[in-house]
């Protein structure tokens, strides 16, 4: 499991971004199943609950009844975690990561995979968690392109080190390799956001890469099902043969989804930000409702509607052309928020 906390899908060639920025990840994507509609729970820039979703708390609203570490212990899985920062959600999950300097992370990854290959137990999990690229305090986003590019290049080298080590240890065709992001990258204000809606959710800050490579996973797939960060924990538990342990989790197993020929997945997903805004993303629409909105019948600030996937940056509000869609999605959003609460 290789995870980059801030990683928008547009920052990789295999997702339509700069082709020379992450060449190792791009090559790996060609050998993997890629989920092109993978979304975080909250965007970059907020106090994210995405890590808590990984840790076993579906929305980070309170202590998990069963910690992720306890679930893996019960399944007989040895877990080793390397990280370049002390993520608080690992503690919530019940794990203590080995925190290492970013410059030495590649060597640590290679050594950890060597240990993975020689471990005594049948079930072993290595999780490498990377925090970069970091958020900038202020300034227009073009001023930070060099920082973002540098961080992505370093991340690509970590992925390359893992893939090479798996090949050299003879594990490449025996493991499930997951490469993903926790939330979209901080990209700053592009200059076209409405000042009145500065806290609004944007898809570019929510959609993050996810690829899976492993035995019986057909390479080169591009999957369009709606999936979220909360699906990773049940996916890993399913891989280790503990499908019964995922019944009380909010996520779904992506391994099962891969066997359904595109017929599974969710009809919609829910996202939010720290300011209290909520969004609902269906297969072809994205509705954002400000925290200043009223109820479904009396909206103080009208909900905004964007057409997907054509409007990748949420620039054109089509709510006036889709009044029925707005009403339907607002009502559905209320239903899903109630279920989350």
Note down, in words, how this protein is organized.
With 341 residues, the chain is α/β, with parallel strands linked by helices. It folds into two domains: 2-257, Alkaline Phosphatase, subunit A (3-Layer(aba) Sandwich), CATH 3.40.720.10; 277-340, no CATH class. It is 28% helix and 18% strand. The protein is built from nine helices and 14 strands. It has an eight-stranded mixed sheet with strand order 5-4-6-1-7-8-2-9, with helices on both faces. A four-stranded antiparallel sheet has the order 11-12-13-14, with helices on one face. A two-stranded parallel ribbon has the order 3-10. A hairpin with a 5-residue loop joins strand 11 and strand 12 (278-282). Helix 1 (23-30) packs across helix 6 and helix 5 (105-118) runs parallel beside helix 6. The chain is globular and about 60 Å long.
Give a quick rundown of the structure.
The protein is an alpha/beta fold and 341 residues long. The chain is 28% helix and 18% strand.
For the structure shown, list the relevant keywords:
alpha/beta, eight-stranded mixed β-sheet, 341 residues, four-stranded antiparallel β-sheet, 2 domains, Alkaline Phosphatase, subunit A, 14 strands
What would CATH call the homologous superfamily of the largest domain?
A: Alkaline Phosphatase, subunit A
Share of β-strand residues: 15-25%
Q: Overall pLDDT, averaged?
A: 83
Share of helix, binned: 25-40%
Assigned CATH architecture of the largest domain = 3-Layer(aba) Sandwich
Q: What Rg, in angstroms, do the CA atoms define?
A: 20 Å
Kindly report the spatial arrangement of strands forming the biggest sheet.
Answer: 5-4-6-1-7-8-2-9
The low-confidence runs, each spanning 5 or more residues with pLDDT under 50, are 293-299
The CATH class name of the largest domain reads: Alpha Beta
Main sheet specs: 8 strands, mixed
Q: Count of helical segments?
A: 9
How many β-strands, per DSSP?
14
Instruction: Give the oligomeric state of the chains in this entry, treating copies of one chain as homo and distinct chains as hetero.
Output: single chain
Distance between the termini: 30 Å
In CATH terms, what is the fold-level topology of the largest domain?
Alkaline Phosphatase, subunit A
């Amino acid at each position: 499991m290789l995870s980059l906390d801030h990683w928008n899908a547009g920052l990789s060639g295999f997702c339509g971004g700069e082709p020379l920025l992450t060449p190792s990840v791009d090559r790996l994507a060609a050998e993997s199943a890629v989920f092109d509609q993978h979304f975080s729970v909250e965007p970059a820039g907020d106090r994210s609950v995405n890590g808590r979703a990984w840790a076993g708390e579906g929305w980070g609203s309170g202590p998990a009844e069963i910690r992720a570490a306890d679930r893996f212990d019960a399944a007989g899985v040895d877990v080793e975690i390397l990280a370049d920062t002390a993520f608080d959600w690992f503690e919530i999950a019940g794990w203590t990561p080995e925190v290492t300097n970013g410059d030495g992370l590649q060597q640590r990854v290679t050594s950890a995979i060597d240990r993975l290959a020689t471990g005594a137990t049948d079930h072993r999990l290595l999780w490498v968690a990377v925090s970069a690229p970091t958020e900038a305090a202020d300034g227009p986003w073009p001023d930070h392109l060099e920082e973002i590019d540098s961080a992505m290049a370093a991340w690509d080298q970590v992925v390359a080190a893992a893939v090479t080590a798996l090949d050299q240890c003879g594990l490449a065709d025996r493991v499930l390799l997951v490469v993903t992001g926790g939330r979209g990258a901080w990209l700053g204000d592009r200059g076209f956001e409405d000042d009145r809606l500065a806290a609004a959710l944007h898809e570019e800050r929510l959609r993050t890469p996810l690829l899976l490579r492993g035995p019986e996973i057909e390479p080169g797939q591009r999957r369009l099902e709606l999936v979220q960060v909360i699906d990773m924990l049940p996916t890993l538990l399913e891989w280790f043969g503990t499908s019964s342990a995922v019944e009380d989790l909010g996520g779904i197993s992506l391994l099962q989804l891969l066997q359904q020929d595109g017929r599974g997945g969710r009809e919609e997903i829910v996202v939010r930000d720290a300011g209290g805004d909520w969004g609902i993303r269906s297969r072809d629409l994205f509705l954002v409702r400000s925290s200043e909105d009223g109820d479904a019948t009396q909206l103080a600030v009208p909900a905004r509607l964007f057409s997907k996937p054509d409007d990748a940056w949420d620039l054109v509000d089509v709510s006036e052309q889709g009044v029925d869609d707005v009403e339907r999605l607002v009502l559905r959003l209320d239903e899903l928020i109630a279920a989350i609460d």
